Amino acid sequence: MTRQQRADLVARRLAELYPAPAVPLAHRDPYTLLVAVLLSAQCTDKRVNEVTPALFARAGDAEAMASVPVAEIQAIVRPCGLAPQKAKAIRGLSEILVARHGGAVPRDWDALEALPGVGHKTASVVMAQAFGEPAFPVDTHIHRLAQRWGLSDGRSVEQTERDLKALFPREQWNVLHLQIIYYGREHCTARGCDGTICPVCRELFPGRRKAVTRRK
């Protein structure tokens, strides 16, 4: 099976399992999504969703957040980890949004990536899920499964993103990003599948399980 054939099979199977995947981070607009994605760094979406209601009750937009002391933001987001850096970034990006963008999250790659605490992955999620722009954010699940499924050699997150964008049509990127994340959490986990157990792995590489069994 070629790399492209494997990609086509993955797209078909994930569409069957997750025909309309929801964004796992609770949000109500581009700003709250941006903050939630920033908080999700080295933190589970579940924990972020537990923290953000209190944060957004205190300040639900950039203008309100820009006036909240960093120490107060830090106290609220502490359960997400890296609280000092994240609190400073949330306050800082809020101030910039107010000063330069009228309080709105810009629909622009360069402007997003220039915000404190916002890297390419965070910008990609916001562009894809808030604005519907084609993007393929690569998180740990996607990076791991792309390598496991033979869709990328896994040398870097950047290379994985380039490989996946080359294999899948642009109109599929936004939904596939979510579908792969859900599959990596629910079926092909880092410890629960060694590349031979989950349904997609078994179908992609039917001989791999026998080879692993023989080596054991």
How would you describe this structure to a colleague?
The protein is elongated and about 60 Å long. The chain is 63% helix and 0% strand. It has 216 residues and is mostly helical. The protein is built from 13 helices and no strands. The relative contact order is 0.12. It folds into two domains: 3-20 and 137-215, Endonuclease Iii, domain 2; 30-129, Hypothetical protein, domain 2 (Endonuclease III, domain 1), CATH 1.10.340. Helix 1 crosses helix 11, helix 2 (30-39) packs antiparallel against helix 8 and helix 5 (70-77) packs across helix 6 (83-101). The longest helix has 19 residues, at 83-101.
Number of helical regions: 13
Shape: elongated
CATH uppermost class of the largest domain: Mainly Alpha
| Cα-atom radius of gyration | 19 Å
Mean pLDDT across residues: 95
**Biggest beta sheet summary:** none
Fourth-level CATH superfamily of the largest domain: Hypothetical protein, domain 2
Number of strands: 0
Low-confidence spans: pLDDT under 50, at least 5 residues?
Answer: none
Approximately how much beta-strand content do the residues carry?
Answer: under 5%
Q: Please identify, by name, the CATH architecture of the largest domain.
A: Orthogonal Bundle
- Helix amount, in percent? 55-70%
Listing every helix as H and every strand as E from the N terminus to the C terminus, the arrangement reads HHHHHHHHHHHHH
Number of domains: 2
What class would the helix/strand composition place it in? mainly alpha
